[in-house]
Specification:
The complex is a heterodimer. By secondary structure, chain A is mainly β. Chain A contains one helix and eleven strands. In chain A, strands 2, 4, 5, 6, 9, 10 and 11 form a seven-stranded mixed sheet that branches. A four-stranded antiparallel sheet of chain A has the order 1-3-8-7, with no helix packed on it. The longest helix of chain A is centred in the last third of the chain and has 4 residues. The termini of chain A are far apart. Chain B is mostly beta strands. The radius of gyration of chain B is 14 Å and the shape is globular. Classes of the chains: A mainly beta, B mainly beta. The interface between A and B is medium-sized, with 28 and 25 residues.
């Protein structure tokens, strides 16, 4: 997706290990979001950021932390991965979401074994 | 908790037919409404947005909003096999701590068969 990239695209990790997912944007958008997508649950907000060093929790934030030290980068860390965190993770960006919605990255498929 | 519900599907329509996708939302303060299309294994892609009561047309797509009934729909005319995807309804709020965040429905799987 133009202007927003996620890395890695796929990852398999072991239970109990820390994992960091990266979202990088070149659009200079203020707002960045991390969602997870699971069958039967749809897209659920984990954390979001409204500026450098300004972050807040979403509805499913337990076990996750985030950091945003630069406008372009938003990192999601699973502090100690569990099997329940096996999911597809999407990063999204927006400048004025109520008018333009979000633009999503390509996603990261994470498997915790 | 703000809720967004979509008709469960899956929805199957023949090529050339009209596909109708529905969404209801719980918060009367909702301000913005979006439809995303998601192909299998891909990320959601914005296809329609609507903010005022009534209809909004873009090519073969028409979004309809009725705030009194807390209902938003997406019509796809002349459906094509390439329209086969999951369609996500998203609702945006302008109030308080929810400002700017979108809440998504679970999605409706649409299959258009030749």
């Amino acid at each position: 997706d133009a202007g927003i990239t996620q890395s890695p695209r796929h990852k398999v990790t072991e239970t109990g290990t820390p994992v960091t997912l990266r979202c990088h944007q070149t659009e200079n958008h203020r707002y960045m979001y991390w969602y997870r997508q699971d069958p039967g649950h749809g897209l659920r907000l984990i954390h979001y950021s409204y500026g450098v060093k300004d972050t807040d929790k979403g509805e499913v934030s337990d076990g996750y932390s985030v950091s945003r030290s630069k406008t372009e980068d938003f990192l999601l860390t699973l502090e100690s991965a569990t099997s329940s965190q096996t999911s597809v993770y999407f990063c999204a960006i927006s400048e004025y979401s109520l008018r333009y919605g979000y633009t999503f990255g390509s996603g990261t498929r994470l498997t915790v074994v | 908790q703000k809720e967004v519900e979509q008709n469960s599907g899956p929805l199957s329509v023949p090529e050339g037919a009209i596909a109708s996708l529905n969404c209801t939302y719980s918060d009367r303060g909702s301000q913005s409404f979006f439809w995303y299309r998601q192909y299998s294994g891909k990320s959601p892609e914005l296809i329609m947005s609507i903010y005022s009561n009534g209809d909004k047309e873009d090519g073969r797509f028409t979004a309809q909003l009725n705030k009194a009934s807390q209902y938003v729909s997406l019509l796809i005319r002349d459906s094509q096999p390439s329209d086969s995807a999951t369609y996500l309804c998203a609702v945006g709020y302008a109030g308080g701590t929810s400002y700017g965040k979108l809440t998504f429905g679970q999605g409706t799987i649409l299959t258009v068969h030749p």
